[in-house]
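Recall that a protein's primary structure is simply its ordered list of amino acids. Everything else, from secondary elements to tertiary packing, is in principle encoded there. The following example makes that idea concrete.
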Amino acid sequence: MTHPPVRRIHLIYNPVAGQRRQGFVGAVVQGLAEAGVEIVERPTSHRGHAETLAAAAVAERAELIAVAGGDGTINEVINGIAHAPGGPDVPFGIVPCGTANVLAHEIGLRVEARATVETLLSGVPRAIRPGVANGRLFAFSLGAGFDAQAVEAVDPAIKARFGPGAYIWSALGRVVSRPPDSYTVVVDGVRHEASSVVVAKGRHYAGGYVLAPGADLCADHFEVCLFRFPTRAHMLLFGGALLAGGATRLGNAKSIRAGTVEISGRAGERVQIDGDVGGPLPCRIGLHPEHLGLLYPPGARPRRPAAAN
């Protein structure tokens, strides 16, 4: 894919996420304006609005869509792009101003105004292959079990004040409140039992931590991380191993490369999609039929994924 010099950018931004980094977003906008780029600002006003705005930008023949917000806002934008006629032909870039910024970590984009402006102006669009679960796209992660329950229980006020620390607090609350659950996960037709599962398209998880070394946004496969938590202590062990970068090397964990996944558990229990609350179980997961163009920082080198366990 090529990225001709951009003259006009549709900027979709989440004002709530932007409150934490108003100076950062403002500096990005100023840098683009100084480069002679016309900016069409489109603020979101409610959950799901970014998806509508992205589809509208495609209909207006946008050259480039930039999204300023967290991973949840980015997820809405990729769904708006993918579902709009001609949408996959419109590249998108990110202005990372959320809590965890997992996608920014994944592509090597620093949370820095100069690096972000340079990426939007001169970045290289790469054809990423999103996953799709019950009709909903995800860029880097879908989870059921421990992590999904922690995401659903996170307190917005604590999240706004403490950022990623809110997820740690919520996860500890999950460990205390209930024992591990059980899920049936069918990976390319083979049945497995797990206490928690993460279907990864990206290596990173919960910010800059590496969970799935074999995952790749651009690849035509998932890395399915299956965890067995016989006790609450095993869930705490998982958290410690994740912080140390070795969660999938635990004896009660394994990673499987796959093209299709089915997850079932308690009917109606919700999954997490790209770090936000998603739809209910049961869930059927596959690769989206079309690629989307995501701007990587200039000079970013394609990475060879590690082999699955």
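The chain has a mean pLDDT of 88. The CA atoms of residues 72 and 196 lie 21 Å apart.
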